[in-house]
C-alpha cells in the first residue's frame, strides 16, 4: 500500500486504454453506486461542493451589480462546463472507497501528489478555455441580434419572451451552447477519472474519453441528458441544490469510467514525499522564503 495513504496512478504506458460498449441499463447501476457513495460520505462531499453554489450565487450578484444581465444564462449554463474538473476530489474519494481505503475528506486533495497533476490541470485549462470562448460567442450572438444597447433585466426578459429577436436568441443561443456543452462533456467525462487512475498523459486521456463517447453514442447521449437534467434541477433553488446534485454526479462519473474503460493491472508506485530541509535563524531573512537544501537528519 502506498505510503501515507496516498494512492498514485499506475505506471505510465504507451498503450491506449481499451474501451467497452456499455448499455443504457448500466447507467442505473452507475447512478445507484454514486448515490451510495454520497450517503457513505455526505459530510465530505457537501463540504467539497459548497464552493460551487457559493460561486454561483456570487456570479448572480456580479451579473446584476455590473449590468450584464443578458449574459446570466450563458454564464450559469457555462458554469457547468468546468464541473468535471471541480469534481476531481470526488473521483478520488470514490476510488478509495472502492478499494476499501480511508475516505476522510483530506484524501480528496491527494491529486496534488499525482504524477498526472499537470495533465489534469491541462484538462481543467481546456475546459476553462471552452467556457471563455462560449461566453464570448454568446455575447457576440446577443450583440448581433439586440445590438450593443444595455437592457434592464425586466425589459430584456420581456423582449426575450415576446419578440422575434428574443425567440431567435433563444434558438440560436441554445443550439450553439449545446455544441460547446457536448464538446466539453466529450473531452472530460472519462479523461479526468482516467488521469486520476492512470498516468497516461493529456492526449491519451482526452482521446480515450472521445473514444468512449464514439463507441457508445446512445448510452452517452442519455448520460449527458441525465447530467443536464440533474444540474438544471439542482440549479432551481438558487443553485443551492447543486451541493447535493454535484457530489452524486461526481461519484457516479467515477463509476461510469470504471465500466466504460477496461481495468488496468499495472503496478502503482508508492508515494515518497520530498524530505524538507530546515530553517536556520542565521539565514534570516532568507529562511522565511526557502528552507535549507540539507535534509533534517544530515543537519543533525
List the defining traits of the structure above:
globular, mainly alpha, 300 residues, 0% strand
Give an overview in words.
The chain has 14 helices and no strands. It has helices at about 25-40, 40-50, 50-65, 70-80, 85, 90-100, 115-145, 155-160, 165-190, 190-195, 200-215, 215-235, 240-260, 295-300. The longest helix has 30 residues, at about 115-145. Mean pLDDT is about 80; it is low at about 295-300.
Q: Biggest sheet, open or closed, and with what strands and sense?
A: none
Beta-strand content: under 5%
- Give the overall shape, derived from the CA principal axes: globular
- Through-space gap between termini: 30 Å
Point out poorly predicted stretches: 295-300
Structural class: mainly alpha
The number of strands is 0
Topology order in helix (H) and strand (E) letters: HHHHHHHHHHHHHH
Q: How much helix, percentage-wise, in residues?
A: 55-70%
Mean pLDDT: 80
Q: List the total number of helices.
A: 14
Give Rg in angstroms.
22 Å
What would you say about this model in short?
The protein is mostly helical.
How is the secondary structure organized here?
Elements: H1 24-40, H2 42-49, H3 51-65, H4 72-79, H5 83-86, H6 88-98, H7 117-146, H8 153-162, H9 164-188, H10 191-197, H11 202-215, H12 217-235, H13 242-260, H14 296-299
Helix pairs in contact: 1-13, 2-13, 3-4, 4-7, 6-10, 6-13, 7-9, 7-10, 8-9, 10-11, 11-12, 12-13
Amino acid at each position: 500500500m502506498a505510503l501515507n495513504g496516498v494512492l498514485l496512478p499506475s505506471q505510465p504506458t504507451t498503450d491506449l486504454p481499451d474501451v467497452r460498449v456499455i448499455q443504457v441499463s448500466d447507467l442505473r447501476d452507475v447512478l445507484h453506486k454514486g448515490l451510495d457513495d454520497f450517503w457513505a460520505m455526505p459530510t465530505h462531499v457537501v463540504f467539497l461542493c459548497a464552493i460551487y453554489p457559493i460561486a454561483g450565487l456570487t456570479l448572480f450578484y456580479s451579473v446584476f451589480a455590473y449590468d450584464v444581465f443578458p449574459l446570466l444564462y450563458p454564464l450559469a449554463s457555462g458554469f457547468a462546463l468546468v464541473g468535471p474538473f471541480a469534481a476531481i476530489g470526488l473521483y478520488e474519494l470514490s476510488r478509495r472507497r472502492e478499494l476499501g481505503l480511508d475516505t476522510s475528506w483530506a484524501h480528496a486533495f491527494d491529486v496534488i501528489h499525482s504524477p498526472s497533476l499537470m495533465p489534469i490541470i491541462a484538462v481543467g485549462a481546456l475546459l476553462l478555455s471552452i467556457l471563455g470562448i462560449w461566453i464570448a460567442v454568446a455575447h457576440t450572438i446577443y450583440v448581433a441580434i439586440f445590438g450593443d444597447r444595455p437592457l434592464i433585466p425586466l425589459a430584456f426578459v420581456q423582449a426575450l419572451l415576446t419578440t422575434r429577436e428574443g425567440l431567435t436568441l433563444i434558438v440560436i443561443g441554445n443550439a450553439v451552447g449545446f455544441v460547446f456543452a457536448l464538446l466539453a462533456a466529450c473531452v472530460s467525462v472519462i479523461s479526468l477519472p482516467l488521469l486520476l487512475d492512470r498516468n497516461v498523459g493529456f492526449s491519451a486521456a482526452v482521446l480515450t474519453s472521445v473514444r468512449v463517447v464514439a463507441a457508445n453514442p446512445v448510452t452517452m447521449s442519455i448520460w449527458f441528458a441525465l447530467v443536464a437534467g440533474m444540474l438544471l434541477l439542482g440549479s432551481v433553488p438558487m443553485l443551492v441544490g447543486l451541493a447535493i446534485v454535484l457530489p452524486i454526479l461526481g461519484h457516479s462519473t467515477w463509476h461510469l469510467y470504471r465500466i466504460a474503460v477496461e481495468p488496468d493491472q499495472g503496478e502503482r508506485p508508492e508515494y515518497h514525499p520530498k524530505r524538507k530541509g530546515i530553517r536556520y535563524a542565521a539565514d534570516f531573512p532568507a529562511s522565511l522564503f526557502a528552507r535549507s537544501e540539507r535534509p533534517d537528519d544530515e543537519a543533525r
